[in-house]
Amino acid sequence: MFASAISRWAPRLHGDVVLGLRAAFPMVAEHLPAVEETGVLMPLFPGSFSGYCHRPLQLRAEIRAARLECVDLIGIQGIAFALPDLDERMADPQARAIVLEAARTLERVPELLGISPHLLATTRREDS
Fold first, then answer.
1. Model pTM?
2. Are 59 and 3 in contact (CB under 8 A)?
3. Which terminal residue of the chain has fewer beta carbons within 10 Å of its beta carbon, N or C?
4. Could you report how far apart the first and last alpha carbons of the chain are, in Å?
């Protein structure tokens, strides 16, 4: 089974730093510490997105609690989410190769997993 999760630090890194949501939603500043503490992502306005954000080790623990084995855990975007010129880099063969090499090299580094806005776990049943 594949399981995707939102990183605990995605709201700060992607939402606040990269997307600048605080400009449109000043309450982001007061929400961030609670999200990072609890993982609960509250909607910014009625009807908007809400969710739960994971720490990488926490996601592994939830997988074990479900009696699954975590075969692999990667950061899906890595630092690429923060590149304002990602489209241009991906259009240039040499720049694309550099971005993809960095992504492949760093996607499984435990200390860096949480920097990616999304995590992807590959799991299997423990008895298989």
1. 0.89
2. yes
3. C
4. 12
